[in-house]
Amino acid sequence: MSHNLLKGKRGLIFGALNESSIAWKVAELAHEEGATFVLTNTPVAMRMGTIDELAARTGSFVIPADATNVADLERLVKEGMEKLGGKFDFVLHSIGMSPNVRKGRTYDDLDYDYLDKTLDISAISFHKILQVCWKLDAINEWGSVLALSYIAAQRTLYGYNDMADAKALLESIARSFGYIYGRERQVRINTISQSPTMTTAGSGVMGFDALLDFADRMSPLGNASADECASFCVTMFSDLTRKITMQNLFHDGGFSNMGMSNRAMAVYNKNLEECKDCK
Amino acid sequence: MSHNLLKGKRGLIFGALNESSIAWKVAELAHEEGATFVLTNTPVAMRMGTIDELAARTGSFVIPADATNVADLERLVKEGMEKLGGKFDFVLHSIGMSPNVRKGRTYDDLDYDYLDKTLDISAISFHKILQVCWKLDAINEWGSVLALSYIAAQRTLYGYNDMADAKALLESIARSFGYIYGRERQVRINTISQSPTMTTAGSGVMGFDALLDFADRMSPLGNASADECASFCVTMFSDLTRKITMQNLFHDGGFSNMGMSNRAMAVYNKNLEECKDCK
Amino acid sequence: MSHNLLKGKRGLIFGALNESSIAWKVAELAHEEGATFVLTNTPVAMRMGTIDELAARTGSFVIPADATNVADLERLVKEGMEKLGGKFDFVLHSIGMSPNVRKGRTYDDLDYDYLDKTLDISAISFHKILQVCWKLDAINEWGSVLALSYIAAQRTLYGYNDMADAKALLESIARSFGYIYGRERQVRINTISQSPTMTTAGSGVMGFDALLDFADRMSPLGNASADECASFCVTMFSDLTRKITMQNLFHDGGFSNMGMSNRAMAVYNKNLEECKDCK
Amino acid sequence: MSHNLLKGKRGLIFGALNESSIAWKVAELAHEEGATFVLTNTPVAMRMGTIDELAARTGSFVIPADATNVADLERLVKEGMEKLGGKFDFVLHSIGMSPNVRKGRTYDDLDYDYLDKTLDISAISFHKILQVCWKLDAINEWGSVLALSYIAAQRTLYGYNDMADAKALLESIARSFGYIYGRERQVRINTISQSPTMTTAGSGVMGFDALLDFADRMSPLGNASADECASFCVTMFSDLTRKITMQNLFHDGGFSNMGMSNRAMAVYNKNLEECKDCK
To answer: What is the DSSP annotation of C166-224?
Structure first.
């Protein structure tokens, strides 16, 4: 059932690769809620995924762009406004990738060119998008911008590698630009720190299944799904949350404020006896 | 325009004193969004305020209760469910009062009986409400509970006195009970940390006008109003935010993540020279 | 080897019950580092423990007092200054007790008289000590006050019960009074958030052994011991840390900033398969 | 008076430009406390500053190196261990620079090559130092590593620009590497979040004088000086703080936990009347 929360709003959505993507779910729900929008991804990601199908289903436009390339972004933003017939009301950044993770370089053996790429793709791209929108005056007053983050920005998780640093940088950019964009144009900028989610990106992280299980048992409400994340994003894009900005919002079933749960401890304890020499 | 976000939902709202109250605004908007609910306040507050008018306008029930009194709360919750014809889907706690503040006892000269009252009224009442609901199984699965808090729980503000400690306690109770209520009954419990708001309660704090001005100029989007707070509360009561729990959510125009703004600094600097001896 | 970090300093130490107490270790080390001090505890705790032995070994004075009783505290502070020949340079609050925990009342079934006691003993006593010292002007300029806390103040741990709320209140009091005491008399007030420690108090918490193991494997440096805590306390009482105030300082081997460690995950994973129905 | 806190310890200190530098003060105090160490800076910074004078006074070695250049760092670390006759016990990273700030590029008009430099110099250099030390096994067990940070990593301050993002990245690197270095070699890694300090670097920030004044009046103990920071660093390098790791430690007179102080408000209010149209 639609609540018409985004009726008449125009959006720009980065990162819908395939139907397991959070951005994909956001696009579907934004459509239901009355928005029109542009979908974008890199040409490579487009070939790997099925974004055209999503565009067809939601009546949206697809414009390829490399989010680390300012010229690409300028073209995207201009073309996007033309297609939609006006400025954007919401923007979603759901982009992250670490060549160090992909190539199996551990955090004590980072390749620094890869690290630059991790930061550029996963964090600096967010600044580039915002700066391009800012310079082209492409976001309406009281518009809402979201980027997807993860608790690794605050706490270290085995195997998350340099993506943790990228998320910390991403959240800082949201605050820094949130101040300026808020003060001058009443645009709010927030990050959502989502439960670990079984997307194409997430599944690349070492030991992801075990982490999913642990997070689920630590969280009183269990892990938040991609669909649930999309619902929350819609409230953040709506006019009902206008005074929230520069925040990192945990959408994680309670994980972030848990120290130890009964359910996770049940698994932990069961194995404890046998595990006295586990290193 | 209603979004029907609370269609068919039943609620319990504490703390609607008069039309400047945040709880009042929440009640009005919850009504628009399709909810039915019980309004409650202490008998004294009811005489001081105009809650009956609100009840009439929103088709809601008024049941007096002292939120620090467990027997009162039991009666309230039972009677409330009867009147509404079912369990609650949402609960709002918007209660706070410090006899130390009222009587002008500064934080280095607290009266400890007053402190007990501050904590009982402003924080422990929240536990009592939750425990009574828990024992009477009065909240539906996936229900949502909110309490209103303030950034004084994290940072010291001149003049806020023992209410700061009460808010810290309140937020801790939200986490502690949020874990249990989430794990066992899928009920989420959060606090909203709202901008300073010119309510009857707020206006009792020393130097409140200056604080309002400072907070407004520090916040890129300005202070959040009571109406805006109500909008956010509605999203938190809706089914779109089901996996957010145990959180303290800043609804403050960005204040909480600002260190110093240009606008506040403009005031500060103006006559800094003349102020070299300001103590 | 002594560093003479507390040479000539006078102290007041609450909570040394027996040689497993953190306060006991602090007293021993403070003595080595050149301090003289008063030890205090409730008459009951004194009978249970062996504080006289500690006093003899460290050349310190024992003055019984109930830290929830203002008259007791006034007598203690006056008498303490007389015995030591001057104002205090440091104060340690290492007091915590929950009748709800002791009597097995779970957090969804709290006895509210017990809760009042938990808060009074574990948190409000800190305010009482500070207010008594403040009114009697009993702490020297640049003095240092510490209270021992636990991460349950920020994150919920199964079984920690209302002590979590007490610690949140305790940390808030440190901030609130730290502002005033810092501004007016250059006295700093901080809390130390210590690893779970096998003291008489700690061992009362449900499932404490398993928690200790989990915390140890989550923390890259392992749990911090009572002796290590004492070392840190001494640096915080010394003149080398004069500008740190209103902080909660994690002394926990890194636990607080870990999301998931390899070592804890090794235990967790071992028989995850067998545990599919662990609730 | 020396406490011999660093007796026999060997160190590596980055960033001592001239006698207003925090790293300079750390070097002086580390010398007093019994340490021997290597001083390093870029060749350019060495010509601008007076590091040789410091080396002479403290009996330390100077080895030029560009902290963004891995080959330079490898040479530095090897040569440093040779000169000192063993592995390092402590490392100080006090490096930060933003070409965007220097060239007057505001945060909504960043040059992305400059941003890369800001991040590389101010944050990634820290990872490079740690990774080089890790690979060369250059830090003793229970060694201590510190980097200097600023509260801009958490909260936005007008004019601090992309240095805020660099500090957020720096603090994340401390956590991420702190996990590995702690787990494998018992080395602790922390950042100190220092008051704004009138160093050569600090004075480049827009509106720095006013910020210093505001921070000073907000902080109950006033701003922390470079000398006071050095004292704290020495405690963190000593054996008394072995179990603190992955933390960001505020050394700021209480600023970080203040929302509004009486003293800052006195200045603010004075000007408020006249400032009704201040933007």
So the answer is: HHHHHHHHHHHHHHHHHHHH--EEEEEEEPP--STTGGGSTTHHHHHHHHHHHSTT-PP
The phi and psi torsions of C139 (rounded to 5 degrees) equal -120, 130
Please enumerate in sequence order all residues whose Cβ is within 8 A of that of A3, keeping only pairs 6 or more positions apart, or say none: A33, B3, B4, B5, B240
Q: Chain D contacts of C181, Cβ < 8 Å? A: 220
Cβ–Cβ < 8 Å for D240, C192? no
CA D24, D26, D29, D35: dihedral to nearest 10 degrees? -110
Mean pLDDT is lowest, of A30-39, D106-115, D192-201, for D192-201
User: Would you state the structure tokens that stand for residue A87, as one six-digit string?
Assistant: 């400025």
D70:A173 CB<8 A: no
Instruction: Give 10-residue mean pLDDT values along chain B (279 residues).
Output: 95 95 97 98 88 95 97 98 98 97 97 98 98 98 98 96 98 98 98 92 74 94 98 98 98 97 87 51
Number of B to D CB contacts under 8 A, please give it.
99
Contact call for residues A140 and A88 (beta carbons, < 8 A): yes
Handedness of CA C225, C231, C234, C239 (dihedral sign): negative
Spatial CA neighbour of B233 closest among B18, B19, B28, B8: B28
Ranges A109-118, A123-132, B211-220, B261-270: which has the least confidence: B261-270
- Give dist(CA C269, CA C195) in Å, integer: 24
Give me the half-sphere count of Cα atoms (radius 13 Å) on the Cβ side of residue B27. 31
Question: Is D245 in contact with C254 (CB distance < 8 Å)?
Answer: yes
Q: From the candidates A29, A245, A247, A251, which should be mutated to test the interface with B, based on the most B CB atoms within 10 A?
A: A245
Burial category of B192 from C-beta neighbours within 10 Å (exposed 0-12, middle 13-18, buried 19 and up): buried
The tokens describing C278, both together, are: 């662990």
Go through the domains of chain C in sequence order and give each one's CATH number.
10-270 (3.40.50.720)
Distance CA(B226)–CA(B20), nearest Å, equals 8
At C248 the three-state DSSP class reads strand
- What's the mean pLDDT in A169-198? 97
pTM of the model: 0.97
Q: What phi and psi values does residue D193 have, to the nearest 5 degrees? A: -100, 100
3-state secondary structure of A251: strand
Whether the Cβ atoms of residue C70 and residue C132 lie closer than 8 Å to each other: yes
Question: Residue C125 is encoded by which pair of tokens?
Answer: 């006593």
Q: Residue A275 pLDDT more than 60? A: no
Give A-chain residues touching B243 at CB under 8 angstroms. Answer: 195, 221-225, 228, 232, 251-253
Q: 3-state class of A56 per DSSP?
A: helix
Do residues D67 and D14 lie in contact, with contact meaning Cβ atoms separated by under 8 Å?
Answer: yes
What is the rounded (10 degree) CA torsion for B105, B111, B112, B115? -30
Count other C-beta atoms under 10 Å from residue A6's C-beta.
25
ipTM score here? 0.96
